[in-house]
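Open question from group meeting: does this chain pack into something compact, or does most of it stay loose? Before anyone orders reagents, we agreed to write out a predicted structure and look at it together. Recording both the input and the output here so the notebook holds the full record.
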Amino acid sequence: MPADRILLGVIGRPHGVHGLVHVTSHTADPADLTAYGPLSDDRGRRFMLHWRGAGLVEVAEQVNGAAIKVADRRAAEKLTNTRLYVARSALPPPEEDEFYFADLVGLNAMDVSGTTIGAVAAVHDYGAGASLEIARADAPALLVPFTRAAVPVVDVSEGRLIVDEDIVRDAECDEVQSSEAELTASHAAFRNAASHRRTIGKRPRSPQPARPSPDARRAPASPSGGRGVR
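Structure tokens returned:
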């Protein structure tokens, strides 16, 4: 994804026969997906979205200054899985202890002694809290919960973050246990179980007025405190 754009949503399956589509919004308030004007896709096409129901939008592509409405199911099907972006300049800067997912990907991950562990390859958030996937050169990737306890320092300007060594050891143990589990469980069943196990942990903040969040999602409040991710 280009560094000057932030992913705001994804067009899903068609709804009905008149061109409506389901859409997944990555803004703090899903309704704000349409508040940033035209959104662009990976091919540079520009789309205007208009809400027509809960999770349903009408789509019009801008072509030579004209809005061409997606009017039937066949045209809507062609847009399935289209990723929608907004210019980074259109978004507010993150608040203190709050981060856009796009800013975390690529950061060097180090332990408290300054030894490099790897680099953040992806940020996952399946609803139960964000986690960082840290790619390592000579070992399997680590999945680390994105909490203050696990990641006490995030310095985007310096291109690095610090991961608690105990968390690294726990993540490595988890990888070993996962490998052992593969010997006794089917691959599909194991992957399903792992996908749920890895959603724990988040760096939450109190809810705020609607703003884009993963690439842009602000985490909800939690009694334990934590950091927000957008």
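Observations to bring back to the group:
The longest strand covers residues 5-15.
Residues 98-229 form a domain with the SH3 type barrels. fold (CATH 2.30.30.240).
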